[in-house]
Design brief:
Elements lengths: L1 H17 L6 H31 L8 E3 L1 H18 L3 E4 L9 E3 L1 H17 L5 E11 L4 E9 L6 H4 L11 H7 L5 H11 L3 E6 L5 E11 L25 E5 L3 H13 L3 E5 L2 H8 L8 E4 L8 H8 L1
Parallel strand pairs: 2-4, 8-9, 8-10
Antiparallel strand pairs: 1-3, 3-7, 4-5, 5-7, 6-7
Helix pairs in contact: 1-2, 1-8, 2-7, 3-4, 4-7, 9-10
Length: 313
């Protein structure tokens, strides 16, 4: 995972920085293509790594308080532009406000919904994609919710439905060539839903769209567990966001150091670089260190990030 994602981080980060330069129209188009291809490759990499982790029994769910309203608002902002670019309507019906905050793995729930909504948008040429979240039962310990993603797309034959949730499988051989993808998304969704104690299914017919649904149970979050779950309504700042901030960036990859220095300098920060934890500790061993914050890599030679952080503390 680390060895695969490190060069991908550099490819995407450097392409993003290049896109901020003064480029000709043709150069800007080429950079946009690099970014789009890089994001597509990253999606495939993430699918394969997630699937491998699930297969090895190494994927762990995290239970934390979250608001469904916040999650659905994020889905709308992430996937709404993709739907609108195809001339589609993305309609997300907010869950009942009476549900309140819940306990669960919001990140994995979001992953499932992004996958299902993304598929619905991909396989729909006209009409809409709708998302509903409906309570099925509300017992004293918690609530069981049904999530349904419906599209007006190409639909799926009964024969294809039977193999939809198998790994590396798509509805037919032409799907990969026409739409791309690994055939892992629905398999990952199924395994995540099952890990969370739920069930998943599909209702569809060729030419009549599809409805992918899953059911999960949640318990309400207690008031003392909530912390601050408020969502910032601030807009994107104009101009450099880190003016004058003094940062020590620690990473053993020369390319990553170059990337982080360029990115932070563009935001107005003053950056000092270190190649391992030992160098970082030495730079900080002054009566008044000349840094406001440290950005610490984890896996490094000589002294890793965790050891260095313990020494710094």
């Amino acid at each position: 995972s680390h060895e695969i994602r490190t060069p991908m981080n550099a490819v995407l980060g450097l392409a993003q920085l290049l896109g901020r330069e003064q480029l000709t129209e043709n150069q800007a188009t080429l950079v946009q293509h690099i970014q789009a291809a890089g994001k597509s490759l990253l999606g495939i990499i993430n699918d394969i790594l997630d699937f491998s982790k699930i297969e090895a029994g190494q994927l762990r769910l995290e239970t934390r308080p979250f608001h469904l309203e916040t999650l659905t608002a994020k889905l709308d902002s992430l996937l709404g532009p993709t739907a609108h670019a195809k001339g589609l309507t993305l309609r997300i019906t907010p869950p009942p406000a009476s549900l309140g905050p819940l306990q669960g793995d919001a990140l994995r729930l979001e992953q499932i919904l992004i996958n299902l909504i993304g598929n619905a948008i991909k396989f729909t040429d006209q009409g809409e994609v709708s998302v509903r979240i409906d309570p099925l039962t509300a017992d004293a310990p918690g609530v069981r919710l049904r999530f349904a993603v419906r599209d007006t797309g190409i639909g799926i034959s009964p024969a294809a439905q039977a193999r939809l949730f198998q790994a590396f499988t798509q509805a037919d051989a032409g799907i990969t060539r026409r739409f791309g993808g690994t055939g892992l998304g629905l398999s990952i969704c199924k395994r995540l839903v099952e890990l969370m104690g739920g069930e998943i299914g599909v209702e569809s017919a060729p030419g009549q769209g599809s409805t992918f649904w899953f059911e999960l149970s949640f318990v309400p979050a207690q008031p003392g567990e909530m912390g601050d779950l408020a969502v910032s309504a601030m807009g994107w700042p104009v101009g450099p966001r880190l003016p004058g901030l003094r940062l020590l960036a620690v990473d053993d990859s020369p390319m990553n150091r170059d990337l982080v220095e360029r990115a932070l300098t563009l935001e107005g920060a003053r950056v000092t670089l270190a190649g391992d934890g030992q160098q970082a500790v030495q730079l900080l061993r002054t009566p008044i260190p000349a840094f406001d914050a440290v950005l610490m890599d984890v896996q490094m030679p000589l002294m890793d990030g965790r050891t260095a952080t313990r020494l710094i503390r």
